[in-house]
Amino acid sequence: MLNKKEQFILKKLLDMQESYLSSTQLAEDLHVSDRTVRKYISQLKTTIEKHGASINSKTGYGYQLEIQSSIQFYEFYNQMNKYIERKDDIAVIQESLDRQYYILKKLFFEMESAKVDDLASDLFVSRSTITNDLSSIKKLLSPYDLKIDNRTKKGIYVAGIETNKRHFIMYYFFNDKMMNATLGFSSYEGLLNEIDTLKITSIVLEECRQGELHLSDYAIYNLVLHICLAIKRLTSGYELKQITSEDVTEGEEIKIAKNIVNRISAEFEITLPEVEAYYISLHFFNRNNRVSFIGYEKEILESQIKLAFQQLTEITGMPFVADELLLHGILSHISLMMNRVKKGTSIENPLLSEIKQNYPEIHQLTMQQLATLPIFITEDISEDEWAYLTIHLLAAIERYIKPKQLLVTVVCATGVGSAQMLKSRLENEFGSKFIIKYVVGYYDLSEEIIQDTDIIISTIDLSNLVFKIPVLYVSVFLPKDDVEKINTEIDLFYSNDTNIYTQKNRNTIKENHSNKDLLRFFNKDLFLLIEGETTRDEVIDQMIELVTKFENISSKRVIEQINQRETFGSVVFTKQLAVPHPMESLHENSFVVVAIAKDGIVWDEQNQQVRLVIMLLSSKYGHDGFDKVGKKMVSIIENKELENRLIKSNNYHEFIKQFIEN
């Protein structure tokens, strides 16, 4: 079986199958050297060549995955994913992250508390190893105002309010699958976009946890979809037919289902009929995906569905065949659907006409490919039921084109107090529109956090710093203008079909400011052409020396601030472009200093061919429009042709001409 690094590389190569992936990029993602990446790829090649695929390499481009046998490869890939999913199986737990998952699952879902010695015994490790794992777990819990407490005889347990526990459960256990899946449901225009699927998921999780009913994430996914559709049916004027008494029996499942119905009715201010609890309980009875009661064993039906998915993958180019979430969702739905068909009952689908009108190709493909399943051949499947199956495929497609939910980092002066207040206001105002991944103080903002963030929301003006991601400056009280500003960025994040969030997207709805406005920050005496190879420190010294001719300021202090900024993360934003800038604004006026070194600058171990350096020195007084220069940097970072034209400039005037006209 592949190790975790090899699994990561294979997933990356599969995601970018149509292009090449460089060893440098993989090294950055894995935080290892290029040489180590090449070692992992060599090992990976040997393994996947036995399973219908190969890795091609091309000098100057990188690596590309080539699949010769889709069925053979995806069978191997699915087995790999199943292995990963068994992180709570002691037999396969080998690494610290797996142990953390096991411990957290125990504490949140299986028992209220646990003793360290018992955990060490269960996992066949030492007490000190568990203690180290708990230190890492505490860091995971901290942003959610949760902590690990220890009481005599009781052992360790998670302390904190229930709301925060639910937020952590949603993020840690269900972020990759459930949040992205429910986001897919909610993003259908005209289908389920008015239904808060994450709120429904939270209710289901909490009630099942309190009732000690253990569901797989696949079962939860299918149940959430069912409840969303029930709400849609109710609000569209449809009624559910009563289930016959032999379909369900009174028990703990019915009690949990009724609690879910009552809470959803209260949360959404609707009245779900009592019969809905019985439909939900059927999902509980069927939670192991056993479908033998309709005449087919699960394994046989699963292999038949995979063949249908293989055809869909070949027709559409979308990875249905590798989608375990889709497979289990379809399996579970078919078992319930065939139960209805055998009994002569059906559920009208309020989305049927919209699906046929807005998604006719996918609807037709669903019927064409799944109708060949032997289980359907002798049955008369209604259009309403086919539309329900189509929804599963639509949800899968949404996951493929919208692979993640928006991750936000909240930055305040200290990271406590006002930060927690802003965090609460953001959660109340925006609900499930994004995940607040980190709440940090100004000096705790790090490269690791930035890499794991899509938008920074800050109560501190960070316009003097340059980031690859949007930074929103807001008041801790979050007035109406700030709410609108954040909503604009949220809309832009999800506006592109492929979820590519670039400055170009933002410019389509924001007012364009003339680049000529930026000329006042440039000066021909702040422009350097450097011959021969040089180093970062030499270039920084030369650039700062130029600035001292305009302002009498300590060069040493400016350099210290520039170096401090780089402790937060690299300022080399492409292979050729670096944008150094001080942590704090020190100058009376704002300046842009430019250096071009066509033979390359050795910036650090990872970046040895930097050719363009644009140093940003903002005024300590602010309010001069200098933040627009930072925004211009983003457009350069995202436009390789412009970057190359700037590097080819032979003098200040050529550089400015390219800078202004593009």
From TrEMBL:
Residues 520-662 form the PTS EIIA type-2 domain. One of its GO terms (biological process) is phosphoenolpyruvate-dependent sugar phosphotransferase system. The keyword Transcription applies. Pfam families: HTH_11 (PF08279), Mga (PF05043), PRD (PF00874), PTS_EIIA_2 (PF00359), PTS_IIB (PF02302). GO terms for molecular function: DNA binding; protein-N(PI)-phosphohistidine-sugar phosphotransferase activity. Keywords: Activator, Repeat, Transcription, Transcription regulation, Transferase. Residues 189-294, 296-403 form the PRD domain. InterPro entries: BglG_antiterminators (IPR050661), HTH_11 (IPR013196), Mga_HTH (IPR007737), PRD (IPR011608), PRD_sf (IPR036634), PTrfase/Anion_transptr (IPR016152), PTS_EIIA_type-2_dom (IPR002178), PTS_EIIB-like_sf (IPR036095). PROSITE patterns: PRD_2, PTS_EIIA_TYPE_2, PTS_EIIB_TYPE_2. Transmembrane segments: none annotated. SUPFAM superfamilies: C-terminal effector domain of the bipartite response regulators, Phoshotransferase/anion transport protein, PTS system IIB component-like, PTS-regulatory domain, PRD. The keyword Transcription regulation applies. Residues 406-498 form the PTS EIIB type-2 domain. This is Transcriptional antiterminator, BglG family. It comes from Granulicatella balaenopterae.
